[in-house]
Amino acid sequence: MVDFEYEVILNDLVEQYHTQLLHIASTYVKDIHMAEDIVQQVWIKYYQLLQVEGKGWIGYT
Predict the structure, then answer these.
(1) What's the structural domain count of the chain?
(2) Where is the RNA polymerase sigma-70 region domain (predicted)?
(3) Is residue 31 one of the residues assigned to a domain?
(4) Which of 35, 36, 40, 41 pairs as cysteine with 26 (C-beta 3.0–4.6 A)?
(5) CA–CA separation, 52 vs 11, rounded Å?
(6) 59 lies in some domain
(7) Residue 13: count of CB within 10 angstroms of its CB
């Protein structure tokens, strides 16, 4: 896959799961800003795995 395809996949997943992940993270840290940082790190890690290994743990795999 080319970078564009990875970005399309990531964008689709962010639209589908971001709110749920934010809710889960906020139940653990009780600070919305910290929860947003955690979720952002999740998406960064997912994108890195998608590019390096060609797979991820949510959908499309």
Answers:
(1) 1
(2) 13-50
(3) yes
(4) 35
(5) 18
(6) no
(7) 19
